[in-house]
From TrEMBL:
Species this chain originates from: Strix occidentalis caurina
GO-annotated molecular function: transmembrane signaling receptor activity
Main localization (coarse): membrane
Domain of life: Eukaryota
Protein name: Immunoglobulin domain-containing protein
Signal peptide: 1-15
GO CC annotations, alphabetized: plasma membrane
Amino acid sequence: MRIFLVWTLFSGGWAVTGPTHVMAKQGSSLAVSCSYKPGYELYSKYWCRPRFLWFCFTYIAHTNGSEVTVTQDGVSIRDNHMARSFTVTLSGVTPSDAGWYSCGLSKTLWFNLWHNIEVIVSAGKAGLGTKQGHAMEPVTVLGTGRPQPGEHRGSQSGNKLLAGTETCWRLPWCKSG
């Protein structure tokens, strides 16, 4: 029985990966990229808000296993089999979009594989911000968006994830690759 429980919990462990935290300014668009291991290319991919025990009962957007872009209520999802990743784009982000989401793939009824992501929405208008009177330019950094030990997670406004890289504004917590 114990072996079955361990196998159930970890059989697809880490099959879906992505950032842990992403940020967007209110009114902007947010693109989040999640990757998956080989062998899952033809499975349906989804984006949802988990409810009870991190399970999703309805999907905000989902594919049917193809690479066709699907758009539902301002949220689009597109799978790229060659890159083994799918990208979810939220348009016109609002404060109500903040919270925890799951990007995942549907295996069977109760054995989906997923990765949890926190979406943080900052106040202000979308677009380039300023820091001490200078326009901030976006820089690309590699990583998951997680701050390293000792880094400050405070004012992380204006970043988004796309295709496995993090685009963020030049702030103290943001490191270029």
